[in-house]
């Protein structure tokens, strides 16, 4: 490649725009030299695009703008066709000139296109260079074609082109226009399409024109034709040309000069710097020339082979659309090495049979309807070695070349994520591009919806500007129906957040990717048809959509209360819709969130990884059969040990009826002794410690063991859900208030089930003789070492009476005090906080929620006071315990039964503002051989 013959004398960075500083003679010489003697690469001339930087240019292309990063500059060439394009940015606009002068200590001229075009045309005529003109109306072009031969008879005019708006926004028509210009062979192409359209068109199609120099000179075509009057010299010399133009065209230019430009003026005062003269241009990313649509079907690579793209598809009753998607992917496999993985969420419509008919497709059966994020994580883990992940809804069809175009965009823009153009079945563009959620944007969408699509970007999360869907550029995020993720970025960002069962999981992933430093790019040449079938819609799904937006705002601290209020207003304004009524109820009452769609177990569950389940049981004859029946299908692969401690009923006899279950019998009625005995007998890892009255579905075991086997967390528990059916009003009020408390850090207590890996179990020795074994284990791990895994939730039965609730609350505080008095076992237990009060207040959204919070606070206060008194009786919830008909009808004294209160005052190693509240109590707590855990939770789980 030959070297450039001239370089700018200096460069400055103004609000993200690298500006090349020339005097007028040097700039003219440089441009004409590039047109006459362009550098070459692989035998082809390297074109240069010349743009002028003024305040409007900064507003359109500067840091934080819609088109940031779309253009190159003299330090950052861009890929073009099979080579590259260089860029030159000249200083234009009085405010930028003044700022550059102050930064460099020199005086630089303003190099406006309207000033340079005359000398450039004269120089081109003298050098025998041909010039073409793109832009202006047909009438202006006709006038120009008459005037130029008269004023510059020696100038060679290659052609004049006056495309209409429909041509410029149509990729096919734009490529045809570029090829027509290429046939005419202009050395210099003057592009006067108006900012930002001219720069965007040059970036996307300029290399196809064959021009050696492209000049983004705005209205110079109109100036040359005499159809637009230039500002007088006094106005230009005093920085008032903008006022002159505004007076001539107020309707067209008012927004630009009075709204868009002033922020840029402030920005260059804060964001400006001189670029060292030692800076040299970077090498542009290499374009892969092998990524071309083949036009025919290909073969999918296996997950044991290295792929360019692993297509990850989540299906749920998708039999009607999967054939179309998989066929379109097979066509893409002719140009890229493509692996395909389908994670099925327990479809019942024959989806699995459809997948199995397609050779080379890997099927992952999740074992239930676990949600989009959970299934997607499984698909990505099963994808093997790949350079990127193509995330796809099941109701899509890829147009030819879409996968290759997305992969190309990752390379060309060094992007972390690339998103395609989504169109409806009739070809109309779907508004899939999004801005980061904010309270003001949510309010704008609430009040205006889609009725005012051209409102300011600040007032809408959705990108409605048609031009945004015609050109490649950076975006905040996009609809998650289709996106391509760089594999290295996916590993850095981590898995999709499974707390979002459906909706907002992509918003969260995009944000985490941006926080990791990655850019998201939109690629319009990658076209994917979205039929809109997807997950459908229902009042429950509408409510889940609204609630997950609140969850997202809460997770990322984005003004949750204001966003929630805006969403509440939105649904209130649309109260006639059933979905809005359902969403409104969920937004004002967080207790209703538990009733929204969530993970459910499937009819069949693939075998889990090997591991052990240890079940301590004391007089559990009434529940042990139900618990073991749920595990029967995985006994063998999973080691199941029932540790009967001090049983005087039929618990051991019933447990032995289940083939493959190992039964231990201990004389001492101690839960911790049973846990230690089970550990001594177990041989496999990970290990799940399961209360005898918890019906844990096999899919939950599978997910827990698989998650722990990856080694990045040491302990985990399944999800759970409170069931207060049949309880008294104060009990229901208590749990309604607890449900409204914002999400707290992950904890292992609460579900009657927790699991540890081998490395996690090595964190502590034998289980000590403590009441709160789950709380003790929880405190052995920092927050990043433990996890609440998204599974079909364990159903936690609450106490039925107020007296029973108070009994278990008293035991809760005594159990916590016992741990606090054992600092040698839990050295990092924190001191008291006001977290519970703050949490209760955070859940108050009206009179009814205030009443519930007051009831909850009163019950907690009463339980705390009574817990200070020493007692010799064993307090537990008898209200939900089944009656023993085999042993005289007396209630069982269960070592593992619990009345659910979700441990309202948990202990954590680290405490957040919404965290727990721990208060010390006097000595005189429970006996050392206490037989219940910290929560004393009574559960009846359902699969």
TrEMBL record:
Pinpoint the Glycosyltransferase 2-like domain residues: 312-435, 612-732
Name the residue ranges with Low complexity bias. Answer: 891-902
**InterPro entries (alphabetical):** Glyco_trans_2-like, Nucleotide-diphossugar_trans, WecG_TagA_CpsF
- Supply one GO molecular-function term: transferase activity
Pfam families, per this entry?
Glyco_tran_WecG (PF03808), Glycos_transf_2 (PF00535)
Report the superkingdom from the record.
Bacteria
Instruction: Report residue spans for region: Disordered.
Output: 870-943
- Keyword Transferase in the entry? The reply is yes
What are the alphabetically sorted keywords of the record? Answer: Transferase
User: Could you identify this protein by its name?
Assistant: WecB/TagA/CpsF family glycosyltransferase
Organism this protein belongs to: Flaviflexus salsibiostraticola
């Amino acid at each position: 490649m030959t070297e450039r013959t001239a370089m700018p004398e200096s460069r400055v960075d103004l609000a993200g725009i690298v500006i090349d500083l020339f005097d007028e003679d040097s700039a003219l010489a440089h441009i004409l030299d590039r047109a006459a003697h362009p550098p070459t690469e692989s035998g082809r001339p390297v074109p240069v695009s010349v743009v002028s930087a003024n305040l409007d240019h900064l507003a359109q292309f500067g840091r934080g703008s819609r088109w940031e990063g779309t253009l190159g500059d003299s330090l950052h060439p861009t890929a073009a066709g099979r080579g590259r394009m260089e860029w030159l940015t000249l200083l234009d606009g009085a405010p930028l000139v003044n700022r550059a002068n102050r930064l460099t200590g020199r005086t630089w001229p303003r190099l406006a296109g309207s000033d340079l075009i005359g000398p450039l045309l004269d120089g081109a005529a003298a050098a025998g260079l041909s010039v073409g003109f793109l832009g202006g109306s047909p009438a202006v072009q006709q006038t120009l074609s008459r005037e130029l031969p008269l004023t510059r008879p020696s100038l060679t005019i290659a052609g004049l082109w006056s495309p209409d708006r429909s041509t410029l926004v149509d990729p096919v028509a734009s490529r045809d226009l570029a090829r027509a210009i290429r046939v005419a062979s202009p050395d210099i192409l003057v592009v006067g399409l108006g900012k930002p359209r001219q720069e965007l068109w040059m970036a996307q199609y300029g290399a196809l024109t064959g021009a050696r120099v492209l000049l983004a000179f705005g209205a110079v075509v109109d100036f040359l034709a005499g159809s637009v009057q230039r500002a007088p010299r006094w106005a230009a010399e005093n920085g008032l040309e903008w006022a002159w133009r505004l007076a001539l065209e107020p309707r067209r230019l008012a927004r630009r000069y009075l709204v868009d430009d002033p922020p840029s003026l402030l920005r260059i005062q804060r964001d400006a710097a001189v670029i060292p003269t030692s800076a040299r241009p970077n090498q542009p990313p290499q374009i892969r020339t092998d990524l071309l649509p083949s036009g025919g079907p290909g073969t999918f690579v296996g997950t044991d082979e290295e792929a360019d793209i692993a297509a990850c598809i989540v299906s749920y009753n998708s039999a009607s659309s999967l054939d179309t998607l998989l066929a379109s992917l097979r066509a893409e496999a002719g140009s890229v090495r493509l692996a395909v993985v389908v994670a099925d969420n327990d479809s019942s419509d024959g989806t699995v049979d459809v997948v199995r008919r397609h050779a080379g497709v890997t099927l992952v059966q999740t074992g239930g309807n676990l949600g989009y994020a959970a299934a997607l994580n499984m698909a990505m883990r099963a994808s093997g070695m790949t350079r990127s992940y193509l995330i796809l809804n099941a109701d899509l069809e890829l147009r030819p070349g879409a996968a290759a175009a997305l992969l190309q965009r990752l390379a060309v823009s060094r992007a972390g994520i690339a998103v395609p153009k989504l169109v409806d079945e009739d070809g109309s563009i779907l508004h899939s591009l999004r801005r980061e959620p904010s309270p003001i944007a949510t309010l704008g969408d609430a009040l205006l919806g889609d009725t005012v699509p051209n409102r300011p970007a600040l007032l809408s999360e959705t990108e409605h500007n048609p031009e945004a869907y015609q050109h490649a550029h950076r975006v905040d995020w996009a609809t998650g129906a289709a996106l391509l993720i760089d594999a290295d970025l996916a590993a850095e960002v981590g898995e999709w957040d499974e707390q979002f069962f459906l909706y907002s999981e992509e918003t969260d992933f995009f944000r985490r990717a941006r926080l990791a430093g990655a850019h998201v790019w939109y690629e319009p040449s990658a076209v994917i048809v979205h039929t809109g079938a997807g997950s459908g819609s229902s009042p429950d799904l509408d409510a889940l959509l609204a609630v997950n937006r609140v969850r997202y705002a809460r997770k990322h601290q984005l003004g949750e209360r204001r966003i929630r209020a805006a969403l509440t207003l939105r649904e209130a304004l649309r109260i006639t819709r059933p979905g809005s009524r359902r969403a409104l109820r969920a937004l004002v009452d967080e207790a209703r969130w538990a009733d929204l769609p969530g993970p459910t177990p499937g009819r069949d569950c693939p075998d889990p990884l090997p591991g052990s389940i240890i079940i301590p049981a004391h007089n559990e004859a009434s529940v042990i059969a139900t618990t073991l029946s749920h595990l029967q299908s995985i006994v063998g692969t999973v080691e199941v040990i029932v540790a009967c401690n001090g049983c005087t009923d039929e618990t051991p006899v019933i447990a032995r009826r289940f083939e493959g279950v190992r039964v231990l019998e201990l004389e001492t009625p101690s839960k911790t002794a049973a846990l230690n005995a089970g550990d001594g007998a177990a041989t496999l890892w990970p290990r799940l410690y399961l209360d005898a009255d918890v019906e844990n579905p096999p899919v939950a075991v599978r997910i827990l063991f698989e998650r722990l086997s990856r080694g990045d967390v040491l302990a985990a528990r399944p999800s759970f859900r409170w069931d207060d059916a049949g309880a008294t009003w104060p009990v229901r009020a208590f749990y309604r208030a607890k449900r409204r408390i914002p999400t707290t850090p992950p904890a292992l207590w609460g579900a009657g089930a927790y699991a540890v890996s081998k490395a996690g179990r090595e964190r502590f020795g034998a289980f000590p003789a403590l009441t709160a074994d789950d709380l003790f284990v929880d405190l052995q791990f920092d927050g990043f070492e433990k996890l609440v895994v998204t599974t079909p939730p364990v159903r936690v039965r609450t106490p039925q009476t107020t007296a029973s609730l108070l009994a278990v609350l008293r035991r809760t505080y005594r159990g916590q005090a016992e741990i606090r008095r054992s600092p040698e076992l839990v050295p990092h237990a924190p001191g008291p906080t006001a977290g519970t009060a703050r949490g209760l207040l955070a859940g108050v959204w009206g009179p009814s929620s205030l009443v519930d919070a007051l009831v909850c606070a009163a019950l907690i206060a009463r339980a705390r006071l009574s817990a200070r008194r020493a007692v010799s009786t064993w307090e537990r919830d008898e209200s939900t315990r089944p009656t023993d008909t085999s042993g005289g009808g007396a209630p069982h004294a269960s070592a593992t039964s619990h009345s659910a209160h979700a441990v309202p005052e948990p202990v954590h190693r680290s405490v957040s503002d919404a965290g727990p509240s721990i208060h010390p109590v006097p000595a005189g707590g429970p006996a050392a051989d206490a037989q219940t855990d910290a929560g004393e939770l009574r559960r009846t789980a359902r699969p």
